[in-house]
Amino acid sequence: MKKVALIVVILCGAILIHATSEFPKWGEINSPASLHVSPYYIKYSVEQTDVPNIVTSVLADYRGFDTMFETTVIFCAGLACFLLLRIFNDKEEETESIFYRHIPSGIIIEFKNHEVDIRDEDFELIDSKFVPYDLIIKTVCRILIPFIQIFALYVVAHGDFSPGGGFQGGVILGASIILLAISFNLKTAIEKISEKTLGVLSAIGVFIYAGIGCLCLILKGHFLDYGKLAKILPIDPVKARAIGMLGVEIGVAITVMAVMIIIYINIASQGKHQEGL
Amino acid sequence: MEVVHSIRPIAAILVSVSIIPILISCGKDRPNFREAWTFVAGVLKFLIIVSMVPGVMHGVLYTFNIVHLGPGLDIGFKVDGLGLTFALVASFLWIVTSLYSIGYMRGLDEHSQTRFYSFFASSLCSTIGVAFAANLITLYLFYELLSLSTYPLVVHHQDPEAKISGRKYLIYILTTSIGLVLPAMIICYHLGHTLDFRPGGILMGTGGKTILTILFFMFLFGFAKSAIMPLHSWLPAAMVAPTPVSALLHAVAVVKVGVFSIIRIFTGIYGISLLKSLHLGTAAAYISAFTILVGSLIAMSQDELKRRLAFSTISQLSYIILGISLLTPKGMIGGIIHIVMHAFGKITLFFGAGAIFVATGQKYISKMKGLGKKMPITFLAFFIGSLSVIGLPPTGGFYSKWYLVLGCIDAHKISLLIILLISSFLNALYFLPIVFKGFFSKEDDDVDVSKYKEAPLCCIIPMIITATISVLLFFYQGIFYKLISIGLKL
Amino acid sequence: MIDNHVFPILIVITPLVCAFFVMGLYWVDKRLCLPLTILAISISFISSIITLYSVLTSGTIQYKLGGWPPPIGIEYRIDLLNGVILVIISFISLFNLFTSFNQVSHDFPEKKGTFYSLYLLFTTGLLGVVITGDLFNLYVLLEITSLSAYAQIALGDKKRAPFASLNYIFIGVIGASFYLLGVGYIYMMTGSLNMGDVAHLIHNLHHSQAIFVAFIFCIVGVWIKMALFPLHIWLPNAYTYAPTASGRIIAPLMTKVMVYVMIRLMYSVFGIDYLFNTLHISQSIIYLSSAAVLFGGIMALSQDNLKKMFTYIIISEIGYMVGGAWLGNKTGLTGAILHIINDVFMTFALFLSAGNFAWRIKDLSIHNLEDIFQKMPWTSTGFVVVALSIIGIPPTCGFFSKWYLILGAIEAKQYLFIIALILSSLLNIILFFRVFEKSLFSSKPHVMESKETRSYNLIEEAPANMTIGLLVIGAILILIGLYSGKIVSNLILPFIPKGL
Amino acid sequence: MELLIKEIIGKYNYWLYIILMMIGLYAIIAKNNLIKKLVGMNIFQTAIILFYISIGYKKGGTLPIIEIPHGHHTISPESIDISKYINPLPHVLMLTAIVVSVATFGVALAIALKIYKEYNTLEEDEIRMRLRGK
């Protein structure tokens, strides 16, 4: 297998490198790629869409359709992870014991019976896999997470003018919850944002995107033709495009966040949603 | 020639498949009802076909097109003299065989009778389809359907022997039809841009000599149902099937479909003049002459009655091809009329073999000594059948042999004439001893003949009918002569 | 009158939006998932029929997404070829729902909703791949399709499916990445991603090495995804161990859609002139596809598992289509396109019958199929029709596509390909009659027709929806065969580019 | 020689990405451990992403965010210097490609986890051996 791989790799590499001889030099201003379609974007982005960040305008408007499916890919991945890993009846592995920590004293109690469910201020469920109980990490994270989330919102909202956008913001938002799950434990994170919420959110996010597209369709435009939103918003079509993009970005952010968390909890807990990293 | 668009060809084809649902719904709970329907369909089919005879005699061409597949490609039917001749024989014999199979299948208490009757009906549908096909692709379609619907009949007994024979049957028939006929047909379409059977052929002036010659042999051997050597050995193997199957399908319908397809290739695709100019007729004649001789010789060495009949069929089929490939009017008429004569003769023989099997359980010739005394009708019919196949008066077989001989003389092929005569002699040599032993030989000690009696009435009557017709054909063959002449445009 | 131009987008958007709804509904009321799925795909199906109709009456349809003109934005471009394939995809997807809803409830009692959501996404992806006129959009949708296919396959047989699926991922990612790389090279040299635009720009670059490499990588990427021999290794296991309901739709559609992509790339992006006058590789590709045809047949012969046998048949059929598309003449391409249509139905019917058999017999080894004709007469009837179609017996549709392929090969003088096609038919005969012999005629001692045996032959059919589904598809196989002349002259020939 | 050096200086980035790609491809085909294969897959995809990004680069170009002069709300198309901003399209495409690769990676990990639960190993040859043993 290794020899075959080597031959394949060398062959592919040689063909690819050979073909670079016809490429324009790196950074060439007059390369075909920068002369054919992209000048249009650079020139007319502000005029047509009122968005100075061209990446955002191309992403969410000129090629917004790609991006919708990109979000769908994310949604699909979340769906797949859920479908593949989620286990509802975990009765097969009943022999595993559960650990509770008595917070004031730090004593850990082991329960062999799975049915035990202590909901007391003084007790907390801990993972049988080793999770360090560290006050410093917990406290720092508790302080940091709100700031991370605010930053995420900023990234989403400001994607039109500076680097950023729905994907980036959504990932940061998701990361904040994952951080919560890591620094505390999985149960805490799931209590904050339940599985059902995540599932619905992941669908709602993409639906916002597709819904805005459909709205344009209903307003007798083409699909995702945000300019038509001006008919129901008190603004001109160019501004409406910017608003449309913002809406879309928010949708993307919601889906990305939800799916990140879904993938994390399913993989970390092997689908049982009991305990994990 | 008057062309009439008529639903009759398709009705004749479909009438036998249309009863299959009824057969299945009757199932084994109501056998009388089931067999009555088979009978009704047979009679109906025959009547529809007969109704076209007067028209065709007066030069009418009945056509029916189902679908148009592309330029020069249709699925459609056309009833001309040749097709009608074949269809008349096949559909008439179906009625007779239906009667016979009732006696045979009940007599032996066979299993899966519904399946048997259903596939029998669909085989007949395909046979008539081949007879009426207006072009090569329709012919091919029904040719394949026939192969498939006879397969379950061959494997009817479901024992290892039947399965092996079934495999052999399929491999020979389908391999040749897909491996040779299909590409040949496509090449033919590529050259001629059509596949319709036309009086002068469609390949004249289309391809080089080599390609046309190769194509010809692809067709000749591709239609392996005609059992030309070396592609013959499926036929003896297929004799494991119940006797009605052997009788109707492997002596009349299936094998003659093969021969009939070759006739269509000769007359409708190549055309006589092209074959003459390429000397392909002579080549085919010698190949079939070889089959005639070798088939007869092998037949002599067979002890199992049905196998002997099978090898006889192999050799008799090549008579037809020989006649056609003489390319003289008399030879061609002789060849095609041999389809009719041989059909009645051979089916009588098979009925006889089946009757013997039903009555005594005997398959081997060597153990049939003295049976004639107990089963005189059977052996008499067998005798008449033999005479017809050998070609002796007063049977129809004489008539076709006569024309074949005349054809050979017309074509100045004396060597073929000699082969024909030798073969007739051989035929006599392997058939007459059976009858002779049956009537005059003293029975063996270990076989107790006394307990045997004639087969059931259902088996006897068909045999009498076919034997009688064999004799009658000696006197009244004019209708077939006329139909064939019209079909060949002579 | 409704503006016809809404329908192209509805084809893709309805299943997509409903996928989200189904996912949401899963948490609300699980019973609503299936009706909504059916509704979504029905709308998609109807839209695609309307779209095909308007293509037939008024020519190619263009749909500008976001209202941007083509090279700037993404466009949908529907001509006859993808119009027809859209109808077929949505039809098969819809039909499969009817035939397999009880199978789904049986396999995934708790995750039914999410499964349907994934199913809808898969359909969306396929429809999107076929309808789009943008090279990069094609990649994205291809990934949606693949991703949902990976996940669906991994849900199958507990022991073997995840491993098969992971292998599929590795190879599938290589394929998709090759395609992406090829698109990158095209973009580098032309600066455009729109198919029509690229086709226009490529005219001046016919002798460019970079375009050649782009072409090779795009095509090889597509080949990997369609499992052309010798790039097929992922397919047999992945399709064999997929859950029944998904396997039925993935197996017929995925590979055929990739063949469509190949034809689209060849004829609508790179162009005939480039393919057959500049490049001189068609000969070797036809050798390759002949090898694929034979390899598939021979490997199928060596399989004991019925489903695995079918997967190798798919590999063999892929060879037919690739070979036909590369013959470089009108008839060959007609044959390839007709075979796409036919093969979708044939493979679908094959997997339907496998699913029906599997409903009664858990292990689909051939020796387990004894007497199946008696137990499941209707399923078996359907199975026989499909088998005949695959062998290529008229009047089933398989015969007619084979007809055009062989005719094309004769015109192109590719005798090896003809031999491969015919040998493959012969192999298929052996393949299927091996099964028939086992299943039609039991080797039990001569059972006499009598009262005692009657209780013995109890009929145990699969559920009615599955059986009827199979029979309907069987009837369709014959109908397509009979009307293949009309299909060719009305739907395929107008598409064939001029100059072939 | 001078030509060659020019060529190297002009194209070395592409070459590097191609080499990186091939490392990834090699890992997918040749490695035995499924996770290593996954990593190889990621390297492969990342290399393609880098390749695309470098298509978009222009010497002296800056981020594709139009600078609107102070005090203005908009800027006329004529006054924008195209060569000043790098090509935004590859960036957009790669944003999509990144997402696709992440999604694939997520699903692949989930499946790998399933395999691990079933076989307690992620070595390909061992899994194959067990499958054959069955």
Strand fraction of chain D equals: under 5%
CATH class of chain D: Mainly Alpha
The radius of gyration of chain C is 22 Å
Low-confidence stretches of chain D: none
Number of domains of chain C: 3
SS field, number of helical segments of chain C: 19
Structural class of chain D: mainly alpha
Q: How many beta-strand runs of chain D?
A: 0
Layout of strands and helices, then pairs:
The complex is a heterotetramer of chains A (277), B (490), C (500) and D (134).
Chain A: H1 2-19, H2 32-35, H3 38-49, H4 54-62, H5 64-85, E1 98-102, E2 107-111, E3 123-126, H6 135-157, H7 166-183, H8 186-192, H9 195-218, H10 237-268
Antiparallel strand pairs in A: 1-2, 1-3
Helix pairs in contact in A: 3-4, 4-5, 4-10, 5-9, 5-10, 6-7, 7-8, 7-10, 9-10
Chain C: H1 7-26, H2 33-58, E1 61-64, E2 75-78, H3 80-107, H4 112-131, H5 135-154, H6 161-190, H7 195-202, H8 209-226, H9 235-241, H10 244-278, H11 282-301, H12 306-326, H13 330-360, H14 372-375, H15 377-391, H16 397-411, H17 415-440, H18 464-482, H19 484-492
Helix pairs in contact in C: 1-2, 1-4, 2-3, 2-4, 3-4, 3-10, 3-13, 3-18, 4-5, 4-10, 5-6, 5-10, 6-8, 6-9, 7-10, 8-10, 9-12, 10-12, 10-13, 11-12, 11-17, 12-13, 12-16, 12-17, 13-15, 13-16, 13-18, 15-17, 15-18, 16-17, 16-18
Chain D: H1 2-30, H2 34-56, H3 88-119, H4 124-133
Helix pairs in contact in D: 1-2, 2-3
Which key features would you list for this structure?
heterotetramer; A: 277 residues; mainly alpha; 2 domains; three-stranded antiparallel β-sheet; 3 strands; 5% strand; globular; D: 134 residues; Helix Hairpins; elongated
Describe it:
The complex is a heterotetramer of chains A (277), B (490), C (500) and D (134). The radius of gyration of chain A is 25 Å and the shape is globular. A three-stranded antiparallel β-sheet of chain A has the order 2-1-3, with no helix packed on it. Chain A has helices spanning 2-19, 32-35, 38-49, 54-62, 64-85, 135-157, 166-183, 186-192, 195-218, 237-268; strands at 98-102, 107-111, 123-126. Chain A contains ten helices and three strands. Helix content of chain A is 61%, strand content 5%. Chain B has two domains: 1-271, no CATH class; 279-490, no CATH class. Chain B has 21 helices and three strands. The mean pLDDT of chain B is 85. With 500 residues, chain C is an all-alpha fold. Chain C starts with 6 loop residues before the first helix and ends in an 8-residue tail after the last helix. A two-stranded antiparallel ribbon of chain C has the order 1-2. Helix content of chain C is 74%, strand content 2%. Chain C has 19 helices and two strands. The longest helix of chain C has 35 residues, at 244-278. Chain D is elongated and about 75 Å long. Chain D has 134 residues and is mainly alpha-helical. Chain D has a single domain (2-61, 85-133), classed as Helix Hairpins (Orthogonal Bundle). The longest helix of chain D has 32 residues, at 88-119. The chains are: A mainly alpha (277), B mainly alpha (490), C mainly alpha (500), D mainly alpha (134). Chain B binds chain C through residues 28, 66-70, 73, 75, 109-113, 137, 140-141, 144-145, 148, 151-152, 155, 157-160, 162-163, 166-167, 170-171, 174-175, 178-179, 182-183, 186-187, 189-190, and chain C through 388, 391-395, 400, 402-403, 406-407, 410-411, 418, 422-423, 425-426, 429-430, 433, 437, 440-444, 446-449, 482-486, 488-489.
